Amino acid sequence: MPNCNTNCIEKPISIGFGKLGRIVGRYPWVFLISPLVISAGLGAGFYFLEDRESNNIEDQFTPKNGPAKMERAYVKEHFPQGEEFSSLRLYTDGTYASLIAVHSANILTEEAFQDVDKLDQKVKQIQAEGSQKTFTDLCAKDRDLGCVSNPILDIVNDHVTNGTPIAYPQNKTEFIGTAIGGVDLYPNNSVETAQAIRLFYYLEEDKKNETDLWLRTFIKNFSGSTAPENIFISYFTSISRDEEFDTNSKTVIPLFSVTYFLAITVSIMSCLRLDCVRNKVWVATFGVLSAGLAVLSSFGLLLFCGMPFVMTVATAPFLILGIGVDDMFIMISCWQKTNVKAEVEDRMAETYKEAAVSITITTLTDVLAFYIGLMTPFGSVQSFCMYTGTALLFCYIYNITFFGAFLALNGQREGSNRHWLICRKVETPTPDNNSNACSCSCSVGGAYDPETGAEEEMPMDILFRKYVGPFLTKPWTKVCVILLYLGYLAGGIYGCFQMQEGIDLKNLAPDDSYVAHYYDNEDIYFSEYGPFVMLVIRDENFRYWDKCAQENLNMCLNEFQSSDMVAKINAIFWLDDYKKYGDKESLDLSNETVFMSNLSTFLDNSGFKQDVNISNNKIVASRLFIPTTNISTAIDEKNMLNFFRDTVSKCWPNMDLMVYHPAFIYYDQYAVIVSNTIQNIVVATVIMLVISLLLIPHPLCSLWVTFAIASVIVGVAGFMALWDVNLDSISMINLVICIGFSVDFSAHISYAFVSSKKKTANEKAIDALYNLGYPIIQGAVSTIAGVVVLSAAESYIFRTFFKIMFLVILFGALHGIVFIPIFLTFFGCCSNSNSVQGEKDQTGNGQNLRHDHVELSGQRSNQNQNHSTFSSDSDCP
Fold first, then answer.
1. Looking at the structure, do residues 486 and 557 belong to the same domain, yes or no?
2. What CATH number does the domain containing 659 carry?
3. Which of 206, 271, 489, 692 keeps 20 to 30 A from 335, CA to CA?
4. What is the pLDDT of residues 805-856, one digit of tens each?
5. Tens digit of pLDDT for each residue in 606-660?
6. 364 & 454 share domain
7. Strands of 180-181's sheet, edge to edge?
8. Co-location of 572 and 679 in the same domain
9. Domain limit, last residue, from 237, 262, 281
């Protein structure tokens, strides 16, 4: 029975690429210039960059169609903003500016309060640049009292002037827990000292253009102002998060030049040869240029198509550069395996026949990993995956066209034995001078192995064959490797249990941003009390006047009150005040007619008019507000959200309840981040397993590839948690990347072990490391060089990208060079001994087979080897 394995798929593709290589070698200028023209045309799409920029944090970092967004739509429809402004009743964060004034000792002294009062007057005198509108012109207004003020100022003024005690957190009818912070209390819960006061300045939401101008002027005024003595000021506005998030991308632009310099340097150093003819300096340079053209073309195309450009996409070029250089190494590696005396067309055909298949395989795994990321509900992840996946496709296309064309032109120069820099023809090496082909004057160049016709073996390959491989396969070394792996796995698993979920909003701004300072002060002084969560009764048939119905509702409220996350103060509920009103007016509110006929009068004369939706003399929906406490960390936010939603689902079964707060829009990420990350990883891993089964002859070794993927993911996820990286939409991107890179390293080394014709498992491991050890290091270093400058970025997003990419490459290379080769030696079934025996039977001469293999091994090694072609009859790694 014929053995239908990889060749069923690989051979036809290989033959097709061989024909393409011959065409590229015949018409190199066509394939060199065409990508340049295409890139110039598609690059015009960057004209639309500003229009496509989508740095709205809610759109990009919260789940699309999250529950809170549907809850917000319901609140907006049933409880529209009325004439009386109330920040408590907003269904969004609102349009506002905010100040936190912090005193080193006590802000409740008369002198300190005068400084705070001056700050308040300064804000109210700010005139918007361009429109000259002041706060009074744009402020959110109460129907009777004009601009909405800060009640805390009147309370503190009364305290410092008249000595009136300040009750905390509820001062008469005002809740001040979120307005005054860092408090020390007397035994009767009145404030003794306080360190901070927070002021809010709300603006009308229907004058967006004018209010945005005023808010930008507010930021400008306080960014350059000097605070009063002993007072530290931090400030924030409703547009600050988005605007500071937008500046993040600008902080990384200067790093691009450093990145390309490092990538070019690493590539040149990797391809540097002492032979003045076979030097691949210009080839490496054009390899980096090819990756740059891929970024230009792909990004331009997607910008033309209207794809949103999110700031996280700015990290993609670093990654694409590393992968592009990696593919370049494959092309050079296979080129150097060809006979240097053959025609360029023939050498290109042979190069493409071997290298293009390997590049296709690695591109397929990486692109699939990114396109699988499109399944996530986060816009930032979707944009990143679309831009990066498309750029990798262009990188692949330009590698086999643009870069291949230059490789052919460089081959013509090498064929005529010309100097790599000055193109002067140098002396052709002979058997007498071949070993000294590049003298100090470089008068001789173009050395090659006269037995194989390929370029000479490189020192790094000899290092792995003679020293590294034998060292790793010693019994005591294997024991150390196993212990090292168990330690690695234990650290990764431990880290996974320490993982934090969700993204801290302050991390979306640069490190030195005023936004970060504001959030820090908020955490220090105002974390004791959280938001007032809206509890909405959506049941149109709820009998508000019925005592049994009220008791059932109170039982539900008691469930909330029993939690440590709910403050021990009364909820703000219109029905409680209405019953007091009924007692005062001697109304029998247990009667439906009396209840409904007097309700409108009560609502008109109280602050609860926006809390009850009445239609056709029927209460369609109503709401109350539950105070929360001790919500200071991401875990607290997640637990609070889950508690509130679980509680309403368990309340009286005949009551339709809903909870909502504008912050829930951001908290929703906790509900989906883990499940979506696991979903993406599982789907991508299954697809990678299928590809491995198709391309690696031995099924058990395909399982080893899958094991390596899982092992690397566990390590990256665990150690990123220990490196202070949360599981959020940003790190989710990198975990998807992790799959593609771990496949690259593990699949190639596994196949090299399987396809080795050595007898023992140890010899197979040494042979695999001999062929792929240095190329794996090359690929790892080139990728790290593409992202290392991000470690210096003044942004959490870019530093996170560097941290996880560093872990991915480090652990992937560690598995490829150390763990997988050693583990495979314990399982001799991952071998092709049967096929080797079959070849011996057919040739009748095992000695000749081994002799041929020695010659082929000499051909397989060179400085730029980077991958193993998935073909059992291939000599190109």
1. no
2. 3.30.70.1440
3. 692
4. 899 889 988 998 899 888 888 865 555 444 434 333 433 343 333 333 333 3
5. 889 999 999 988 999 999 999 999 888 778 888 899 999 999 988 866 778 999 9
6. yes
7. 180-181, 196-202, 96-103, 231-237
8. no
9. 237
